Every structure is written in C-alpha cells, then in structure tokens.
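User: Sequence in, structure out. Go.
Assistant: Echoing your sequence, followed by the structure tokens.
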Amino acid sequence: MENKTKRKIVAAAWQLFYERGYDYTTVDEIIARSQTSKGSFYHYFEGKDALLGSLSIIFDEKYEELMKTLDPEENAFDKLMYLNRELFAMIENSVPLELLARLYSTQLVTKGEKHLLDRNRTYYRLLRTIVSEGQRRGELRDDLSVNDITRLYAMCERALLYEWCLSGGEYSLRDHAEKTMPLLLSEVRKKF
C-alpha cells in the first residue's frame, strides 16, 4: 500500500512538471493530482526538490513495461539497444530537459542517496539479467564480468543524456543514441 501511494505522488508530480514546469508546480497541486494527503507527501518527500531524485522511479517503471515486450529469442546486444532506444524516446517525449539537467546536478552534489546509482533498481537488475544471459549464450564477452558490462552500459547512457542536456536538446536523443550506443558498446560483443 505504501509503495502505491508513493508511486501515485511521483507520477502526479512528473505529469505536472511536464505540463506546467517544475518552478510553476506546487506541492499542493501534486497532492491534489495524486489524490493523497499532505501527510503522505511529507512522509515520503521532504519537499518538491526531493522529487527530482524520484525520476529513477519513472525510468524503472518504463523498464518494467519494456521487460514484458522483450523477445526471448533476440540476442542480448540487440535487447540492450532496444531498451536504450525505448527509454530515450520516453525521456525525449515526456521528461522536460530542465528537470533532467536538475536531476544530474543534484546527483552530483547530493550527500545522501544517489538514486541513479542504486544497484538494486529495476534498471540494473534487468541489465544484469540480459548481460548474464548474453554471456551464457556466447553473445557477449565473458572475460568481462556482468557488473563490468552493466556499468559500462549505464555509463554510456548517462554520458549521452548528459551531453544532450549540455546541448540544450538541440537534436533527437533517441536518434543520436541509436547511432552512438552500438559504437560505444561494440567491444562487449563476442568476436567470432
């Protein structure tokens, strides 16, 4: 039950941030949209700024959706490229650039929990599963650990997102990543 309430707050907040902008969204509007209470809001979040770190929850929800659409017969490398393409399309179409930039800046200076690096997130668990399966099937290098390849993949994604933020979103994130990610990760494929 608790997790459901938190998810309702997070979903409502990000809808409002997208519609109205972060600066123009109030905590009271988030509470009203989520149909929760002020007590519930402050039980989970110290304030509106604390919601920035919850973007990783939105990303993980997208990954949970995408897990159901993966073709079990597809090779691991192509699965990784599919996940990247779909997540970046979602980011490009529903996450305001300014909020993504704020998220990265808060993760750089925060002293507390760094949500993006939480290895227990759905994101990392799914990546480890795909990489492990790819190594078992002989599709990905096995002289690198599952964690090494997962970390490399996550680092490449963050680099592309950061660069897109720096450029002010002047190009399609999804299209750019579709060309760039295979180049950045080509060395994790097993050579035949």
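User: And one key feature?
Assistant: DSSP finds nine helices and no strands in the chain.
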